[in-house]
Structures are given as structure tokens and as C-alpha cells.
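Protocol step 6 of 9: fold each sequence in the batch and record its C-alpha cells directly after the sequence line. For illustration, a two-sequence batch is reproduced in full.

Sequence one:
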Amino acid sequence: MTADPVLLSALMQLPEAERFDIAMAILDQSSPSAVTEDEITLEAAKRQDELESGVVRDIGYDELLAGLIYRPSTPAQ
């Protein structure tokens, strides 16, 4: 990260909700047309179809967190 450490430190002192708002504003500004609302809707429908057909299974919150926290030390083979 190349952010100014003083700026980053000041931002981290803000309440979580304000940090989130700033992060979303930056993301919206840096990639305003990355995905359209229609594309999001189509992708959500596709994922729902996968769940309903049994192609994929849903996971619980704890399993989701475990997957997010796990960081492999080597690339997947």
C-alpha cells in the first residue's frame, strides 16, 4: 500500500461506519461502471439456480469465516 501513513492512521481512527462509507465512495469513484445493476441481478439469479439445482451447496456463517480467514501459504495445485 502506498497511502500516506499519516492519512491512513487518521482514517483508521474514524468509526467503522465512516470508514466503510469512505471505502465505498473510493470504490465507486475508481470503478463506477465495473458491474451494472442488470449484471448483478443476472449473476444473483444464476447463483440461486445453482443452489436450487444442487450443483453447489450453501455454507454456514462459521464455514464462510473460516474460508475468509484461511490464507494458503502456497498456490493451489
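Sequence two, same batch, same settings:
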Amino acid sequence: MNKLTIGQLIRKLRKEKRLSLRDLANMINMSHVNIAHIENDRVVTNKRTLIDIASALEYDRDKLLAIADEIGDDIKQIIKNKPSAVPQFLRTAKNLSTDDWEKLSQMAKKLEKNNKDV
């Protein structure tokens, strides 16, 4: 199976939602022509627009940004605040299963809650 481009994915998601180009454009306050250019991979769009598109299409913004080889500003800030810890953690955890990642996420949420309670 071929990997979808960002434009192909956006078109696929839009069609699954049964939205026209104009519908999606109106949802994110953009020209339908610009949406068509994005879907046809004629232009590279900015992160803000990708986040707006993800929201309008009810798609995970981090997944859409990753496909576009971008990361959210909040993630950049986390990495910036912990420049050695985050990459080290990711390299250590890179071979974990999806279930393991979910367990880690739950543990992190518990730690965060415990830290707030203290």
C-alpha cells in the first residue's frame, strides 16, 4: 500500500465526511481554491492551517502534523524545556508496542495528577 501524501489524506478525510471543498473552506475561513491546492499537493501549508483542517475534519492534529513532517508548538516547547530527557526517553521507548505506549501514557497521567495534588 502506498503512503498517502498530506493532500491525499486531507481529500480522503474530507470525502469521508461528505464535505465539499467549499464546505471545508468555509469551516476554516479559507478559499476553496486554496484547499484544492493543498489537496493536490501544489502548496505546502502552515501548521495553523493543518491544525484547523484537522479540527474541522475531526482528525488527530498530531497525526496530521506528523504526516506533514511538522510538530506542534506545544511539543517543541516540551522538547526545548527538556532537551536531553525527551530525546533520550523517545529513543529508549521507540520499540514499545502501542499497548505499552498506552500504559506509559496512563502512568504519566497518574504522575501528573499526583504532582498536582501535592
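Proceed to step 7 once all outputs are recorded. Observation for sequence two: The radius of gyration is 18 Å.
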